[in-house]
């Protein structure tokens, strides 16, 4: 709990220093402001600047070294191992969401990977085409009525993009993870660092591309996070199944375009 | 067993025939094939690679319409000159950044799982790229006579058209709707863009 308390104090402090964004008066701009739902943008951007600094100064060099030293096979096993540890929490969430098909897949995946995958080191379940739905508590909250965009956008220190609902979800999932209470805190933190460095080393080329492909990296990440989360959230709300009635969340509205041939 | 085998063959045959007969899927399949064999795995210099990619990319993607969508409410307010400057910069920038993205391709299979009607003459082609975990990619196409143009690519729920639009709206909102300044920023960014990451 102490960790959460510090994060909270940190946020309040930042908020006090940087203040809230004010809603613009122009109606078009106001519409965009509400869609984006990032009233804490000044604070978020400050945290983002800090994250980017930490990424460039610490995470990137460490991840490069990790990728250079550790063979791909081992890196994959590290990722598989930590992913397998999260499956009991995913399973509980799937039950809370009434997603019994997912719950079955998760149970099958966990059993297969723990026994035949030598304690989760090998992802034999994916090779056997067992899906990895990874139901999280943010989705559970959405299923319980907190649907929509999940409240104001949040840039978490070190952890990255989130929103109020999914930030709470992440906290609950982390505390619910059996490994959190079964091992010593030092072991848990070490594992957390290894898992995250490993995951980052796998994605850093793509992240670098995203950064170089954007004119405003903060705004680009914000919209991509929101859209990707909408997909996960909708997958338990059943919206995507009713495409006849409702356009999918990813359907850009091209109705205003002057097509050349029309 | 023999019967089952024959049955499976029949199904597989009908699936592949179905795939072969859908022109929208064929369009994306041919495009992917073309980029993989003639650009990504071809033995050419990086400069030639970029030029080949540029040809394929700008021919397949309706960047003019996407560019207009991306500017949103700011499109109508902009002068013709600024619109053109933006479209040029946007085309150059997306070509370079998408070339870099395609360059991360590691020989994974692309599986086409179906095609849906989006509206009138627009279609979603559903596909998966087989990676450690499958990545869902949806290609939004618009039919134009006998051919198609890509108007959006949706990767794991993230629409590229919407992402650019939201990002650029944030910038335009900050700079008072100055499309020219955005175009210059994109120009600067693509000039500085070097495709190869120092790894």
Description:
The complex is a heterodimer of chains A (262) and B (199). Chain A is mainly alpha-helical and 262 residues long. Chain A is built from eleven helices and two strands; from the N terminus they run αααααααββαααα. A two-stranded antiparallel sheet of chain A has the order 1-2. Chain A is globular, with a radius of gyration of 20 Å. With 199 residues, chain B is α+β, with helices and mostly antiparallel strands. Chain B is built from eight helices and five strands. Chain B has helices spanning 2-21, 23-40, 46-60, 63-71, 73-77, 80-102, 160-174, 179-192; strands at 110-119, 122-129, 135-144, 147-155, 158-159. Chain B has a five-stranded antiparallel β-sheet with strand order 1-2-3-4-5. In chain B, helix 3 crosses helix 6 (80-102), helix 4 (63-71) crosses helix 6 (80-102) and helix 6 runs parallel beside helix 8 (179-192). The N and C termini of chain B lie far apart (52 Å). The model of chain B has no long low-confidence stretch (mean pLDDT 87). The A-B interface holds A 24, 28-29, 32, 36, 64, 76, 123, 126, 132, 205-206, 208-209, 212-216, 219-220, 222-224, 227-228, 230-232, 243, 249-252, 254, 256-261 and B 64-65, 68-69, 73, 93, 97, 100-101, 104, 116, 118, 122, 132-133, 138, 140, 142, 144-145, 151-152, 154, 156-159, 161-163, 165-171, 173, 182, 185-186, 189, 193, 197, 199.
């Amino acid at each position: 709990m102490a960790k959460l308390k510090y994060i909270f104090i940190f946020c309040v402090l930042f908020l006090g220093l940087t203040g809230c964004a004010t809603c613009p008066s122009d109606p078009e701009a106001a519409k965009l402001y509400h869609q984006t739902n990032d009233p804490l943008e000044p604070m978020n951007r400050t945290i983002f600047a800090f994250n980017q600094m930490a990424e460039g100064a610490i995470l990137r060099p460490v991840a490069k070294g990790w990728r250079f030293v550790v063979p791909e096979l081992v890196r994959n096993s590290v990722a598989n191992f930590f992913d397998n540890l999260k499956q009991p929490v995913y399973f509980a969430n799937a039950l809370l969401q009434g997603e019994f098909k997912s719950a079955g897949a998760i149970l099958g995946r966990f059993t297969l990977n723990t026994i035949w995958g030598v304690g989760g080191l090998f992802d034999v379940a994916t090779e056997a085409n067992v899906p990895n739905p990874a139901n999280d508590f943010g989705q559970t909250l959405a299923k319980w009525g907190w649907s929509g965009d999940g409240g104001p956008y949040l840039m978490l220190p070190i952890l990255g993009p989130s929103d109020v609902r999914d930030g709470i979800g992440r906290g609950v999932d982390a505390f619910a993870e059996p490994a959190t209470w079964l091992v010593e805190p030092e072991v848990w933190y070490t594992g957390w660092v290894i898992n995250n460095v490993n995951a980052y080393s796998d994605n850093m080329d793509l992240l670098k591309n995203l950064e170089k492909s954007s004119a405003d990296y903060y705004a680009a990440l914000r919209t991509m996070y929101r859209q990707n989360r909408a997909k996960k959230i909708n997958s338990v709300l059943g919206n995507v199944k009713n495409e006849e009635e409702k356009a999918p969340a990813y359907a850009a509205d091209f109705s205003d375009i002057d097509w050349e041939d029309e | 067993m023999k019967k089952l085998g024959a049955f499976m063959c029949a199904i597989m045959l009908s699936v592949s025939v179905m795939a072969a007969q859908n022109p929208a899927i064929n369009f994306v399949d041919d495009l992917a094939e073309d980029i993989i064999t003639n650009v990504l795995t071809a033995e050419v210099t990086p400069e030639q690679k970029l030029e080949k990619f540029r040809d394929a990319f700008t021919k397949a993607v309706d960047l003019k319409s996407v560019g207009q969508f991306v500017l949103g409410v700011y499109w109508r307010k902009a002068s013709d000159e600024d619109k053109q400057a933006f479209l040029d910069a946007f085309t150059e920038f997306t070509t370079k950044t998408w070339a870099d993205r395609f360059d991360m391709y590691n020989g994974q299979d692309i599986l086409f799982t179906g095609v849906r009607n989006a509206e009138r003459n627009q279609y979603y082609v559903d596909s998966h790229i087989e990676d450690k975990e499958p990545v869902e990619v949806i290609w939004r196409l618009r039919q134009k006579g006998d051919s198609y143009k890509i108007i959006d690519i949706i990767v794991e729920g993230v629409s590229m058209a919407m992402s650019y639009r939201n990002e650029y709206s944030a910038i335009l909102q900050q700079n008072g709707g100055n499309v020219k300044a955005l175009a210059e920023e994109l120009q600067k960014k693509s000039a500085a863009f070097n495709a190869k990451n120092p790894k």
